[in-house]
Amino acid sequence: xxxxxxxxxLKIAFVHFAMSTLLVAALLALYMxxxxxxxxxxxxxxxxxxxxxxxxxxxxxxxxxxxxxxxLVLLGRGKWGGVMMTLAVSLLAIALFxxxxxxxLYKFHVNGFVxxxxxxxxxxxxxxxxxxxxxxxxxxxLLLIAACVGIALAARRWWAICSKTFxxxxxxxxxxxxxxxxxWHIYASFKQLPSTxxxxxxxxxxxxxTAYSLLNNMGVEQWEMLNGQWxxxxxxxxxxxxxxxxxNDSIECPNIVLILIxxxxxxxxxxxxMPCTYSLAQSSQWFQNHRSCSNGTRGSVFGLMFGIPxxxxxxxxxxxxxxxxxxxxxxxxxxxxxxxxxTLTDPPFHRVIFHRIPDIRLDTNxxxxxxxxxxxxxxxxxxxxxxxxxGRPFFSFLFFDLAHSMSLxxxxxxxxxxxWDYADYTRLNNELDATPFFNLYRNCCHHVDGWIGxxxxxxxxxxxxxxxxxxxxxxxxxxxxxxxxxxWGHNGNFSVWQTGIPMILNYPGxxxxxxxxxxxxxxxxxxxxxxxxxxxxxxEDYSMGHLLTDTISRTWHFMGSERNYAFIMEGDTxxxxxxxxxxxxxxxxxxxxxxxxxxxxxxxxxxxxxxRFMKK
Length: 616
Description:
Layout: H1 3-29, H2 43-74, H3 78-106, H4 112-119, H5 123-126, H6 131-157, H7 164-191, H8 194-200, H9 212-217, E1 255-261, H10 275-282, E2 285-287, E3 290-291, H11 297-306, H12 313-319, H13 324-331, E4 335-340, H14 349-352, H15 369-390, E5 394-400, H16 402-405, H17 435-461, E6 468-474, E7 479-480, E8 488-489, H18 496-499, E9 503-506, E10 513-515, E11 519-520, H19 524-531, E12 557-560, E13 565-568, E14 574-577, E15 583-586, H20 600-610
Parallel strand pairs: 1-5, 1-6, 2-10, 3-11, 4-5
Antiparallel strand pairs: 2-9, 6-9, 7-8, 12-13, 13-14, 14-15
Helix pairs in contact: 1-2, 1-3, 1-6, 2-3, 2-7, 2-8, 3-6, 8-12, 15-17
């Protein structure tokens, strides 16, 4: 094998790679056209989008280049390397074209759900396409393949242009675009620049960097207009609510106290462990089959406060869209306060949920989670006499963190024994007896229960119990290997042990009752808006939920985020889309379900419901 031949083939390979990258970047750029994001673009957004297209195309095509093209060239099989590269680029181009059409229809990219749907046994009965459509699609596929073949032939003819200057210019362009796209996204996502945030989701499986915590710790200001002084305007890509709000302002506004326990395992809600909360549940509407809308705090609290999935976070945040629940309470003159054991800045609820609330309290003083939770309860109780005196309705958000942190001193670690001294995650395995670990957790819940008891008692002492709605729930659950699949904590799966939490609703004149139909966090906003805040619109106008007491089916219950989400089906079957796009189907105990076929018609209807707040 001659050295000159290898050098020539290396130049051919690089030219082939560079021209193919340009083709793929052009295809990625086409996602913008026909989308509703174009109306929000500015110069900075366009620069980021173009750089992202080049960067993403470079990363995608670097895989076949390094995996087989260059190795084959070095082995003296440069022509075969070119054939393999052409095949890879052709398949990628066709996949992008198909994904472009799927995204236009469903507002997400090709994943295991779509593949299962098209390959399922009933797909030929539901997906019936005209022959002209097949002809049109086939013609475009052939044009894409022809373009890829043309690039391969051109590379073999024009390889001589691959001088050192050419290589450095191309590599420099690719590296510059990649560095710029990621660095700018770090800045733009932190500053919430709409054009950048909106176009990021257009590109399939493109995940540029963020650095919220780092910039926060460095003391960087997130935006100039802090304290809720942003203008309120829906973006060009959002319709929320679907129709103007029809309201009755001649109502007696109740106080609303929303209490959340971070990482609340429903096995802890017993008379032994949490006597105060258990007593409250017994005298309230107690929903025994309640599900969150994610297995993490960010998605669950967003879904609880907006009534729609965290799938919309990336659209609502740059558009500065406030929860309609908050907007309605502000219209009615509510005093809105937050008392949290953990900071409101991570996740950044202060700029998504509470951004219209001036001087919202971001954190609570205290050296430990125990101290902060105790202090937040004390601070809320101290505010009640003033609330009672001024007569203004108030909304208070109390978020206890101790059950999540599981951090207690030796003196505080009771009454349940034996209990671990701390959460030693290095000891966790599928054979472990979870009792001491769970006892540590129960001890944390026991302390939180005492503070909730003090809060409820203080509301009554202040004479506010006759006009106060109290909701007690969790953001998500906390698993202690109940399914015996070696899962602990949360953010690991979408089973009931990571997403099933208690839901207690108490209000003046409530008839105590236990409900066993499935309810979700999406139901809280409609229940408050319709039952207590004078909103007449159907819940479909502004929420994915229903009234908590409505026994309508919650099949196709959406959980998670755009990157990793699941639909909860009948019998708690879980259809999960993994971060890499694959689909996994399990039963309620996380056992694999083989041969599951998605009904395309039901899936399409579910996606249409999910996307109904996006402009067509």
